[in-house]
């Protein structure tokens, strides 16, 4: 495997470096033994990896960032990012199955009351109840304040009506952090937004599975709420605080996406370096041609830069600092690196890069999602610019 350096993490979790390397070794062994041999077949058939989900439960991945007080592993974002990168080097879809689940858990852990934490987090950590984040609607994704899903108070309950789309884990998940309007007339609009943990039941159904060019295996679905009744106890962080709670969770989400980008960028680089040493043209291995050397160097630089920015953002998150700018930079750099490296790896592989018998075509189909999900890269640049000005007042 191509060696890349990683800056050392600040220790914020209850784990020492030895524990961290034990966890990473267990994950690596699992990927080697139970994942890599099966990815191509499962991915091409777009099959949900039930068996791997059971193995991820056993590894504790559904509780990776949930506090040990609630049955999780209590890992720092830095250690977690390392796991996500490793998993994504093998198959990005698996990381998606626990990423959005853990963003939902982070919303409860950071903003829920004690009763909510006790009721939800142990079940999330065990993977007994899994799910994700339901923000996007058919008419809006980037402009979240334009959502139309409505929750109306009715005694001790709220009644939710609306449609959410592109929801990861939508079919196989049981619980979702659902962003709604509790006051559609509020100004500014975010004051009328709230976040509920909604568990599937009467009035909450999947309307259809959405087909995609990549990110196969994991289910993306449209969810419909029709007079769905949810207890007021499922409201996280109080009425009118839904957007703030969600955006806090998305900082971790963007670090996750960045780590996935590092995984794909590195996987593409590894494959290209290997292939350039075995493929010969004009009497020598292709890595001796300068045109290939330039590509390999650019791929390595992109990967290193993405890794550095990703662990920089994760460390800021672990220190409890506001890190939307750092997470935005990491997400942008790593996702663009994943896209560029997967295409360069395809070119270096020639026709084999275009073959469904090699992994490059999957990396090429998976990578662009990272530029869209958890806030598009255009939005990340806007966030970065706003923060630059806010942090540097004259
Ligand atoms: C496979 C997959 C999984 C997903 N999983 C989830 C999930 O689990 N939960 C969830 O809630 N959502 C999920 N999404 C949805 C995703 O978060 C949205 O697609 C994303 O936020 C962008 O929203 P949109 O598609 O509505 O694009 P739009 O908001 O309509 O944007 C369209 C284009 O306009 C650009 N744009 C928008 N506003 C501006 C602006 N102010 N300035 C400059 N450019 C702008 C965007 O960058 C984009 O290029 C998923 C999407 C996919 C494809």
Report on this model:
With 394 residues, the protein is α+β, with helices and mostly antiparallel strands. It has three domains: 17-126, Acyl-CoA dehydrogenase/oxidase, N-terminal domain (Butyryl-Coa Dehydrogenase, subunit A, domain 1, Orthogonal Bundle), CATH 1.10.540.10; 131-242, Butyryl-CoA Dehydrogenase, subunit A, domain 2 (Beta Barrel); 244-391, Butyryl-CoA Dehydrogenase, subunit A, domain 3 (Up-down Bundle), CATH 1.20.140. It is built from twelve helices and ten strands. It has helices at 17-35, 39-45, 50-59, 77-90, 92-111, 114-126, 242-278, 290-318, 324-348, 360-366, 369-372, 377-391; strands at 131-134, 150-154, 157-168, 175-181, 193-199, 204-209, 220-231, 235-236, 280-281, 284-285. The strands form three sheets. A four-stranded mixed sheet has the order 1-4-5-8. Strands 2-3-7-6 form a four-stranded antiparallel sheet, with helices on one face. Helix 1 (17-35) runs parallel beside helix 4 (77-90). It is globular and about 80 Å long. The protein starts with 16 loop residues before the first helix and ends with a helix. The structure holds flavin-adenine dinucleotide. Flavin-adenine dinucleotide is lined by residues 100, 132-136, 140-142, 166-168, 212, 215, 220, 369, 372-373, 375-376, 378-379, 382. Flavin-adenine dinucleotide binds next to strand 1, strand 3, helix 11 and helix 12.
